[in-house]
Structure formats: C-alpha cells, structure tokens
Design a protein that fits this description.
Pfam family, one: DUF3048
Number of domains: 2
Keywords: Signal
Protein name: DUF3048 domain-containing protein
Order of helices and strands: EEEHEHEEEEEEEEEEEEEE
Distance between the termini: 31 Å
Mean pLDDT: 85
Radius of gyration: 18 Å
Strand content: 25-35%
Organism: Streptomyces aquilus
Number of strands: 18
CATH superfamily of the largest domain: YerB-like
CATH topology of the largest domain: YerB-like fold
InterPro entries: DUF3048_C (IPR035328), DUF3048_N (IPR021416), YerB-like_sf (IPR023158)
Largest sheet: 12 strands, mixed
CATH architecture of the largest domain: 3-Layer(bba) Sandwich
Length: about 325
C-alpha cells in the first residue's frame, strides 16, 4: 500500500442527517455460545424482506476516491456470527471489550471495498472517540441503545444504520438473527477512498532494531481469546478466535502483517445493556505501553495520542518510530 505517517486532513463539520434510528435495531451483546438475545432486547431490523447468503466471489474494489474518508464497520464476534465476511479486505481491524467480557471488531476500509461485510452489529460510545482520528468517516452499524444514539447523531461522522440508505443492508440465510445482518459497502461509498484517508498516525517500513522472537501470541479478554501464530511461508500472523482458526465465509484465513497489543484504560461507562451489564469504555486518547508483532518478532513500544483528532504514534524507548509491516494491521485494546 506504500503508506507512511500521515497528518490528519482538515476536518469538516458538515451537519449530520438527523434521523430516529433507535427502533428495532439489533445491538449489544450476545452469549458466548451464540444463542444470546439480540442487542438491548430489541427485535432485529427488518430489511425490506431481502434475505440471501453473503457472496465473496467478487474481487474488492480498489479505486481511490479523492477527498473521501474511511468506512468503519462494527462486526459481530459472537461464536454464532463466525465466519466473518469481508474482514480480510480491511486495512485495520480493531478489537474492543464489550459487555460480559466479550469482544467486538471494528473493520476500517480505505484501500479496497469488499462486495459484502458482516455480520454487522451495534456501536459503542468508545467508537466515537476512536473514529475522531478520521475526517468525517462513515460508520456502518446495526444500531445502539436509545440514550447513545443522540451522541452518535451529533458526532462528526456519517452514521449508517439499516433503512437509512436503500439496499445497503440485507439479512443472510445461513445464520440466525441477529447474527445475519450484512452490508454492501458500495451502497455507502462509490469507491475506496484510498490510503491517504488512513490518518491513523501509523508508520510503515523497515522493522526497528532489536525485538524478541515471538511466533505465537495470545490475547485474552474476560470471555474471549485471540491467538496469533507466525507463518514464515505467508509472512503473516494466522488468527484464531476462542481456539478456532479464523477464516472468512470464502475460506480465507485471517492473516494480518502486523499485530498491535495496545494497553489502555478500560472503565465503566454510563451505559448498560438490557440485562444490566455495564458497557465498558475503552480510552484510546492518552499514552501507555504496547507490543508490536511483525516478522515473527515482538517489539516493546510506547503509544501516544494527545487528542481525539490525532492519530496514534508508536515509538521505541529511544523515541524512534516502530514501523509496521505493509499489509493489514490488527490493534487489540487490552486493559492496562
């Protein structure tokens, strides 16, 4: 992709479309066995009677669109939601802790758009802070609890829930609701915005000196586990979730080039799911320790993000940048 450190483009403050989007949307947390209730106890959003099986046969669109921003999609990560569709095409995959100690993904697309992405689930308050690093991004999500939606509607982003853009979402037939909501990215963006939209602060290039051999790394949340195993033949880390190899619906193994374990403050928010579980808030502004995995080695790093509108820098103890390998990046927010 040829990306290097980028400065944030001038943010726009265009007003968001005001819409009442809090009715009958699937959001929140499900049980680890995949049979849990829909988010906030609400019924899944109807999608005009359309239901089909996700299709990954079409190659992702890679044409750039000058001045456009990224597409961020909230991805369901309950066991019943796997395998995922389109996550292998994301430039960045963030993982965050949600209610009950489970996890959820946010896939960020800039250099290419897959034909289909999903399953799509609900947004969290932490997403708003994380997305401020981008210039008016499009956030695709199934919904959110009623008290959170006003904050989302006021945020400097283009919020896209089912029913807002005709034909953007559909229900798949291979999984039960609420784990079967899928997005057609082309209905929200005419083309991939390009690498310049990735105003993350990340730098790409040669690995820093030093590092320790680390060919297998496991990251644990209270009720979810991720493992990353280095494959020298693929020059990538093979992802497993809860002890099972992570593949797409097309059978492709999820395999990022760089994995970042970022230690952050995770605190209680003012929000709860319908069962009364508190929604964790992941603080991504500040500084702290991180571990960067690339090339079968682990590098200790310091992360820093001064303001919500800034990207995040990763540096060595000497202050030199910790470059990432070219390719997909996974960032896992873990409690410090």
């Amino acid at each position: 992709m040829g990306r290097r450190a980028r400065t944030r483009r001038a943010g726009t403050t265009a007003a968001l479309l005001a819409a009442a989007l809090t009715v009958s949307l699937a959001a929140g947390c499900t049980g680890t066995n995949g049979s849990g209730p829909s988010d906030d106890g609400r019924a899944p959003e109807r999608t005009h009677g359309e239901s089909r099986t996700p299709d990954e046969s079409q190659e992702p669109s890679e044409s750039g669109l000058a001045g456009a921003s990224v597409l961020a999609v909230k991805i369901d990560n309950a066991r019943a939601a796997r395998p995922h569709t389109g996550t292998d095409s994301a430039d960045i995959v963030y993982t965050e802790q949600v209610e009950g100690g489970l996890s959820r993904l946010m896939a960020v697309y800039a250099t290419k758009l897959p034909k289909v992405v999903g399953p799509v689930r609900s947004a969290r308050e932490s997403d708003l802070e994380l997305l401020r690093q981008f210039d008016h991004p499009t956030l695709a999500f199934s919904g959110a609890q009623g008290k959170l939606m006003p904050l989302i509607n006021k945020a400097p982003l283009n919020s896209q829930t089912p029913g807002k853009t005709s034909g953007a979402y559909f229900r798949g037939t291979a999984k039960p609701a609420p784990h079967n909501l899928y997005l057609r990215p082309s209905r929200l963006l005419p083309a991939a915005p390009g690498a310049d939209a990735l105003t993350t602060g990340f730098t790409y290039g040669s690995a820093p000196s030093g590092g320790k051999k680390d060919t297998s790394e496991t990251v644990r949340y209270p009720a979810a586990t991720y493992s990353f195993t280095w494959s020298s033949s693929r020059d990538r880390y093979l992802v497993s979730m809860d002890g099972t190899a992570a593949v797409t619906t097309g059978g492709k193994r999820l395999a990022p080039a760089t994995v970042v374990v970022q230690y952050v403050k995770i605190r209680k928010s003012d929000f709860h799911d319908f069962l009364g579980n508190n929604t964790p808030y992941t603080e991504t502004v500040g500084s702290g320790k991180a571990k960067v995995l690339r090339g079968g080695k682990a590098y200790d790093a310091r992360w820093e993000r001064d303001r919500p509108t800034d990207g995040t820098t990763f540096t060595t103890s000497d202050g030199d940048p910790v470059n990432f390998a070219e390719g997909q990046v996974w960032v896992l927010f873990v409690k410090a």
